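> tool_call: predict_assembly(chains=two)
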Amino acid sequence: MSWWASDETHDPARTSWVESANGHGVFPVQNLPLGVFSPPTGDARIGAAIGEAILDLRACAAAGLFEPALAAACIEPSLNRLFGLPSVQRKSLRQRISHLLSDPVYRDQLTSHIFTASDCELHLPVRIGDYTDFYVGIHHANNVGRQFRPDNPLLPNYKYVPIGYHGRASSIRPSDVAVRRPSGQRKPAGSDTPVFGPTERLDYELELGIWVSSGNELGEPIAITDAAEHFAGLCLLNDWSARDLQAWEYQPLGPFLAKNFHSTISPWVVTAEALAPFRIAQPARPEDDPRPLPYLHDAADQAHGAFALTLEVHLLTAKMREAGLAPYRLSTGPASSMYWTVHQMLTHHSSNGCNLTPGDLLGTGTISAPTRGGFGSLLEISGGGQTAVKLPSGEVRAFVEDGDEIILTASASAPGAVAIGLGSCRAQVTPAR
Amino acid sequence: MSWWASDETHDPARTSWVESANGHGVFPVQNLPLGVFSPPTGDARIGAAIGEAILDLRACAAAGLFEPALAAACIEPSLNRLFGLPSVQRKSLRQRISHLLSDPVYRDQLTSHIFTASDCELHLPVRIGDYTDFYVGIHHANNVGRQFRPDNPLLPNYKYVPIGYHGRASSIRPSDVAVRRPSGQRKPAGSDTPVFGPTERLDYELELGIWVSSGNELGEPIAITDAAEHFAGLCLLNDWSARDLQAWEYQPLGPFLAKNFHSTISPWVVTAEALAPFRIAQPARPEDDPRPLPYLHDAADQAHGAFALTLEVHLLTAKMREAGLAPYRLSTGPASSMYWTVHQMLTHHSSNGCNLTPGDLLGTGTISAPTRGGFGSLLEISGGGQTAVKLPSGEVRAFVEDGDEIILTASASAPGAVAIGLGSCRAQVTPAR
């Protein structure tokens, strides 16, 4: 029996009196992701998704249903304070919510604290302090590296250093906020000088977002064996990218305006606890390929550092929407194509003493499967714009056009566990200003 | 007569009843920088530096000495709200403080709101949202580029794109917070594999920090002709760097752990208004070298986009401190060796719609003069570690050692104006953990 099976919050037999949760596939009572929402006539507050509904955790706190430390965190307008609590307290909140939503005795008391999700507005779940994007999708690194350096796609540091760089926190938005096509400098082929104007190579990047729970003091690294304490949960992340701006600006200090105009995240934090049944060994990193340096090595992490998540990207163009066509699937693949684990990213990031804070966001970098059907960006799918994708509407796409909506989803499944999902990360592109 | 000479806050004849301010050279009544401090027995609050003293602006606000919008901003524990006000209101605060500190009629009323600066603790002046570091020191770019690419030091984008990248906001500290030597991966010469341990090439970088005042909405760029409205003021910034970590990690996405372990800033914000007399034409960028793209071009900015600031770096080793020796000057040079102006940096950063927010910090990147006496980092002064500096203590330095203190200062002077300074940015290095 898996260790998580003894945790009643994962009991496959557990159902909820919120009937839409049972057999929901994304937000059953075994998931219970956390977020911040506004009901139709109210301000922003913390909630938990349950089927097609949201439980108002601020109202639960006010009703005396949580112990004091949890109640104090749940009345805040963001998850930062809750993330700053020790994991044992965050686990007890999960157990409590699971109990409240599964035991019918609470049904009458909680009915007024349950809202229909489609009536609510979802916000960023935290005030994001710093945002860091990694580059752990090894197939993506190979695919992109091959376009820039055909004979040497993977740089010598890749298998030693979890490569990462800082991104922009202020321009991260939740699902359903429109993305304005950015303008910037690009150098047309054959020209010696750049021009300024709307990007002609707008792309998405399929990533997982990693939420940091408790932080570390400046100068005090996180040991790999302690990293679990600092991992709050996952979301989906679309790292929108302007490839023509990127190609011209990125040397020598890395991507800047090509990336920081907008990033979209799915609004629900699927917690580390909810993901426990879906932890698997790291298939993308063979042992001794090379062996990680000691500060990044932990046998337990190697044994279940990856996630049994299936990722999908869909595209819905304006024409498809008008014609009533369903979104077209651009790719599907496993999230396990990550060369470095969440714990290795957290540990590496703090290994020089850099202080992480509750509510920081780390991106994995684009996650691509080894073959085209699972590539995580149009840059890869279209081979740098060479081979456009044919859509059911008769349209073709080498890059993202105005009016297009990109939809990322992820579902987790494991033997003996009830399947869950991360929800969706979606946004539509509007024309340049 | 210069336009600023009609502004009474710059009147060279104006003196303060705080006598240490008169002839102070750094914080005379013509400067009035803003910061956040704690007096010996009190909590953090906003203040203005005046000579060797600090005026408590929260107390002034509580005493009804400011108009309501300014009073509401001055009772906050950081400058963010004040920075978010229109510049006309920030200017009126400057005029009011100048009046209060120069007219002796206020002496008795304000004496209890004046603290001796050396008794106070200085904090970060703002809650920093996002931190971006630029690379506008063209001689630094040349010097460093030459070490990596002898035949091609300046990349083709340099004279079109104000190159920048995102840095870490959480690890920025004010002066006098010790810097712990970071550990990390480096690849020893001749080795195929990296090792992990304390950096052997710790360096400083001499930069100016640019504080963002009012922000812009996501998707709405700042026009170059509106950029002044978004510039709150300057500080000094030491972008501590671990060169061996940097060399190994920085490709392909830029510096990360080599930089984000600690950055030190001077605690006083010297405002755009205080700097008005010291604006000069941009000597580092000849016109049409090439001409900037239209979105970065503004004749007025070209005419006075630079600052008549002289920068200095001093080193005080533990041995020198014990021997009672004065700090040794490592370099001195003009801040005008910047290829791009503050307004061009603000405009470029937002040109893709990226939203800046009040209290964001932009670094200029290392500012080096054309010759060795004005180089802004030990990497440049020592020629990549080849030529150590000889110190009066008999010691030598190719990079920064434990116990060393690095002190950055800047002074502004202009014909007809009272000289001011930015204060000092200083921190001592402690051994690795």
